[in-house]
Amino acid sequence: MVNVGRIVAVSGPLxxxxxxxPVVQNEVGYALIDDLRLKAELIRVRGDYADLQVxxxxxGLFVGGQVxxxxxxxxxxxxxxxxxxxxxxxxNPLFDLAEASGYFLPxxxxxxxxxxxxxxxxxxxxxxxxxxxxxxTLGTVPEGQIAHRVMVPFxxxxxxxxxxxxxxxxxxxxxPVATLEDDRGHARTVTMVQRWPVKVPIRAYDQRLRPAExxxxxxxxxxxxxxxxxxxxxxxxxxxxxxxxxxxxLMSRHAEVDVVVVAACGERAGEVVETLREFPELIDPxxxxxxxxxxxxxxxxxxxxxxxxxxxxxxxxxxxxxxRQMGLDVLLLADxxxxxxxxxxxxxxxxxxxxxxxxxxxxxxxxVAAFYERAGxxxxxxxxVGSVTIGGTVSPAGGNLEEPVTQATLKVAGAFHGLSRERSxxxxxxxxxxxxxxxxxxxxxxxxxxLFARALLHEGADVAQMMKVVGEEGTTLDDFVRYxxxxxxxxxxxxxxxxxxxxxxxxxxxxxxxxxELVTLLRxxxxxxxxxxxxxxxxxxxxxxxxxxxxxxxxxxxxxxxxRLRALLDEMRAVxxxxxxVRADA
Length: 586
Ligand code: ADP
Ligand code: MG
Known about the structure:
binds magnesium ion; alpha+beta; globular; 26 strands; binds adenosine-5'-diphosphate
């Protein structure tokens, strides 16, 4: 019998229903009006009252109306065919609908996310008699560039014995590919698709490992100064227009990962549509094919109901964890998590919960932490290693980093890439502030050189600050040179031209070579007769370095440009100031 409740209140995206048969937290219910079934999630139970957030516009719902409870948690469908998809928070595929309905589904209609008719060439891996557990591989199908593992469903507890496995050949999603038997002799059939409750982390692995290896994003300021780790987390706060979305797009394109999942919670309705238009045209620099082949986009715009926005973040991380179970490196980019937090705030307000800071719910911190904790590096039962790395943008109102969402994120993130309005106004991209940002992870270049560069950037900024007061005339030549050196490092290395085909992405080896060269250069005493001469020297060095940045790695031009920079430096080197002599003088 269906479990039906009666609506006693409607408040924005929220409804309250009385029920008389058991219900569970996070189960899905459908609010019924006429022929429509509006999907909703049970988010609170008090006595006989259930509060549900509806994933659709609630116009027309009325007191006395019915809610059909399903007993099933809000879940994602997982199987081959996810890659290349653009879905909303409830996994409705938007791609095909895009042009036809302007990216919005009619209310109350839900589409199956995966294609039931498509045939996949299945290759069995497990053999009859094998003993398997949740997450173990039964076979594979090729999906784009990856071998998609068909696994024992993650929710199946205990040990199972393989009784049957399909032979190599074409199979549809719902075709049985294996039959497993538990230790009491109960048999179950495995297909290529399984459902998983999005708010529960997938834990079908043996061990969590400490993220210690850099995830190369090919963005110099990130990899060199504020690295991200494979399986780690990072936070990108920045005011509106500072470049958060562009930065995430660059990462989704160039980062060294197998799969990218983008959770796009748009600031503006048009922004997500733009992403959808542009993304399929981007080329994967590694394969030369469409970037979409290894990407999943889960999107919502600010004009969609708040509950759907909340769901999109969980759907995205569930898909990311699913591909991690295949021993892959997955990057999840959430842009912007502030929109998600605002959805939480709105629902919490409607529930009349006791508000925390800035009216965000008091549990904001634990919700944010639980989300980022789903990142991680894991060892699977077959010994292979997979990772989910999570990077979330935050758009604090007025650029105020003290606000609750930024603060909650900073408590759990392993790296912080703060974008500054000052830098983006000066068109210094990426606008990551080198003075405010930090990372707890190891990077791709020499550690001592990083400390040297950081110190130099701080000193340069101090001199710049002082010069605002005393002017250039009141500044010593030494201080002025410090300032120029810091500016040089910033312009020639930290800034990167996203539109130059070579400069847009800088590999780890290249960063180590170029950064090492630049630090050597910056440590070399120069022959400078005065401030004008100093300005000229750094102007020339800057130009030579920028030219070098445009030469492809491992080409003769790259070496020629480096030699040109070295020759220039030789010309300007102070003959009398070899390092030993400087030390003797001091
Ligand atoms: P946010 O997401 O922080 O609001 P966007 O990422 O949309 O900001 O960036 C706003 C604009 O700034 C872009 O449309 C682009 O013109 C410029 N911009 C941002 N980052 C870069 C970059 N790395 N290189 C060049 N231009 C950039
Ligand atoms: Mg943006």
